[in-house]
Design a protein that fits this description.
Residues 15-74 form the Glycoside hydrolase family 13 N-terminal domain. By secondary structure, the chain is mainly beta. It has strands spanning 2-7, 13-21, 28-32, 45-46, 51-59, 63-70, 73-75, 82-86, 91-97. The protein has one domain: Immunoglobulin-like (Sandwich). Strands 3, 6, 7, 8 and 9 form a 5-stranded antiparallel beta sheet that branches. Strands 1-2-5-4 form a 4-stranded antiparallel beta sheet, with no helix packed on it. A hairpin with a 4-residue loop joins strand 8 and strand 9. The chain is globular.
Length: 98
């Protein structure tokens, strides 16, 4: 699992690439504050090696809670910038700081 950030100097966004291994999964998405927790808006593409990957333009100068949804199961990114307790979910969420 990984998160890579590419700052775009001419735009108020950061290109964020989410990558996670889920060889046996059928559907993987990244959901969070940046896409209203909508799995359709955060679908990742499956690569031949079983890794799922997607790149999104996300507004910079903010922090966002997020998780992966792997075949309906919420999973944290271990390389998140930090973690925060979310009482709605009853669990920690990863934090993406841009």
């Amino acid at each position: 699992m990984s998160v890579k950030k590419q700052i775009i100097k001419t735009k108020p966004v950061v290109k964020v690439t989410f990558t996670t291994e889920a060889k046996d999964a059928n559907v993987v998405a990244v959901v969070g504050d940046f896409n209203n927790w909508d799995p359709k808006a955060g679908e990742l593409s499956k690569l031949k090696n079983g890794t799922f990957k997607g790149t999104f333009d996300i507004a910079k100068d903010a922090s966002y809670e997020f998780k992966y949804v792997i075949d309906g199961t919420f999973v944290n990114e271990p390389e998140s910038d930090s973690f925060v307790w979310n009482s709605f979910a009853g669990a920690d969420n990863g934090v993406l700081a841009l």
